[in-house]
Amino acid sequence: MTTTAATSVPPELDAGALARWRDGGGKLIELFEAARELGPVAGFRLGERRIVLVTGAEQVQHVLAKNPDTYVKHGHRAKVLLGDGLLCASGEPWKRQRKVLHPQFTGRGIRAYEPQIRAAVAGIAERWAAAAATGEAREIDADLRHFSLEVIWRSLTAHPLDPETHQRLIAAGDSLAAIPAFAPATGEIADDFREANERADVAAAHAIALAGEAEEPHLLAVLLKAAAELPDYTERLVRDELLTLVVAGYETTATALSWLFLLLDAHPEQRDWALAAGPVGSPERAAAIRALVDETLRLYPVAWLMPRYAAAADTLDGLAVEAGMTVLLCPYLTHRDAELWPDPEEFRPQRFLEAGRRPVPGAYFPFGLGPRACVGAQFAVREMVLLLEELLPAYRAEIRETPEEVGYAITVHPAGPVRAVLHPQGE
Ligand code: HEM
């Protein structure tokens, strides 16, 4: 994508937007929205930092898929808790670790853990049946968090999630979720994480003890085998990897599901459409439910901001990117670009099933793109579809309290509890 007319002087960002953001009166997303107006690649300064915001599909593809060695992960925010786990690793260690985990999260691997997903689905279905009988509103976001945590815990250990571990992991995860989207260097926040790390260590030791007794397939067996066979795969790395899978896997999935129930409350006809697509267990119904998930992740790509560090100079759409600059990818903005997505603000899952309307490369990346894309993407989609196949026909979730704000931290999330009354539906 090198062009001859590269400029090293970033176009000026609207001074008003920058000032509002600096004064705390605006959100980071407003700053990015203003920057996006400059074009598919926009450069600006935030204090000492020189930022390049990339929102054009072709340029997203260039950064994430075609040039992952130029645009690298660097000093990940989650390292304070997740250490050298896959999310924060780089270089050769990352390659080795990815090779161990990847097969567990594709076709046959996922099928091995499907009984654990189904057990977690049965658990939430039971809780919702009891709640529906009372007619009282409940925090369904907490239910969905419990569900997705149970899925990953069961897949790791082949054991149900006990209440103490549930609490410990949620508390550890919450401390990470509270890091602002644009965090200071990890050293500055490490002190705040002592307690979270202690909790996480107890949970990890418990998981390892449980996994030793398990007979069904479980992910920890794969990690422990790697530790026994590979020289650099230390016990500490087993702990980091285990916590990485928990933390990367549960909040993201649960938040996507919360958005989905909020969107279905505003668009009840879309729930009816998905259920009418085919009978229980049919591929047609599964495809329509998958489209609900895809469209939810288009409007709310939970991992809404992906930072990269330019390890070498490059030129992006005429802008000279210098080594050392921070490059930000923002699927939240790319997914709402009217040139890529007609009527971008509309919730219209059918767009994912229309023949010949596959998104252009780089236009849709809720799970990232290229070699560092989400290792758990297929697993997450399978988990969400299995849950929705069970819950959607059985209940209509009437949202009683919609959070007014959208939170933009490590995830884009409803900023407050999502309370709903569950109305049993006959099918
Ligand atoms: C809706 C659910 C999910 C979303 C939206 C999501 C999103 C993402 C994204 C965007 C990335 C890449 C970040 C980047 O390039 O900077 C990522 C990486 C990752 N995700 Fe997910 N994820 C989800 C569920 C899961 C699940 C269920 C697991 C595991 C069980 C998981 C494990 C990981 C790991 C380990 C990485 C790091 C991969 C690597 O760097 O090689 N994620 N995820």
From TrEMBL:
Chain sites annotated for binding heme: C374
Gene Ontology molecular function: heme binding; iron ion binding; monooxygenase activity; oxidoreductase activity, acting on paired donors, with incorporation or reduction of molecular oxygen
Keywords associated with the record: Heme, Iron, Metal-binding, Monooxygenase, Oxidoreductase
UniProt KW Oxidoreductase keyword: yes
Pfam families: p450
Cofactor requirement: heme
PROSITE patterns, A to Z: CYTOCHROME_P450
InterPro entries referenced in this protein's UniProt entry, alphabetically: Cyt_P450, Cyt_P450_CS, Cyt_P450_E_grp-I, Cyt_P450_sf, Cytochrome_P450_monoxygenase
Record carries keyword Ligase: no
Stated family: Belongs to the cytochrome P450 family.
UniProt protein name: Putative cytochrome P450
Species: Kitasatospora setae (strain ATCC 33774 / DSM 43861 / JCM 3304 / KCC A-0304 / NBRC 14216 / KM-6054) (Streptomyces setae)
The organism's taxonomic lineage, starting at the top: Bacteria, Bacillati, Actinomycetota, Actinomycetes, Kitasatosporales
